[in-house]
Every structure is written in structure tokens, then in C-alpha cells.
Specification:
CATH architecture: 2-Layer Sandwich
Organism: Mycolicibacterium poriferae
InterPro entries: DUF302, TT1751-like_sf, UCP021774
Number of domains: 1
CATH class: Alpha Beta
Shape: globular
CATH topology: TATA-Binding Protein
Protein name: ABC transporter
Order of helices and strands: EHEHEHEEHH
Pfam family, one: DUF302
Radius of gyration: 15 Å
CATH superfamily: TT1751-like domain
Distance between the termini: 27 Å
Length: about 130
Amino acid sequence: MGFALSTVLHTSFDDAVTRTREALAGQGFGVLTEIDMQATLKAKLGEDMEQYLILGACNPPLAHRAVDVNRQIGLLLPCNVVVRADPANEAAVLVEAMDPQVLVDVTGEEQLKPVADEVAAKLRAAIDSLQN
């Protein structure tokens, strides 16, 4: 089983980030955290890498349902969505989200399956809308 929902965009990195934020918002997700891996690795380690942004997305009603099933699920929240330049193709930007079914697999908590299914459907809808 793969662990990512993803798409490839042929646009600028900044446009991909803007469109991803809008697509997530359209599915009820807010971005709680943002990690600029490129800037962080350059500042902390002096290492260069392609543009790589991790967005911590949260849909509060769904997060609440998941935490009600298992309080430890917060260790796996928020949903990470990565927007990154494709090092193999400078004209492409990858947008990837963790498949929420991984939460069910990791925890073994079958009661999380309906929540994970709903989160997956919303993330898939957001990612699919990027192609329009």
C-alpha cells in the first residue's frame, strides 16, 4: 500500500502553494503550521535543496472525531501536505498528502476507518481540484 495521495502540477512553486492552500480551504482544512525545509536546511546545516514546503493541515471536526476515538492520534496530526519542486523536472511541482488510512494501519484502531475515509476523500478532492 502506498502512503501518499499526490499530483504533479506544471506551474510555478508559488502558484502551486497558493492553489494548494485554496484547495485545502475548500475542503474545510486550515493550515496550522508551515515548515520551509529549503530555508531550514540552509540556515541550520548549510545544505541546499529544492523548494520544499510542509503544510500542517487540519479539518477541526474530523480531527475532533479522530481524537475522540483515540487520544494518542494527536501524535499523527495535523495532516501533512507537501508542496515540493520536482528535482527530476524543473517544470513540475509535486503536491503530496499522507493517505489517512495510514492512521488506521499504524494504530490498528478500526473505529478510525470511517474518519480516515472521510479525511481521505476530502484530501483527494483537494488534490484532484488542483488539476482544474
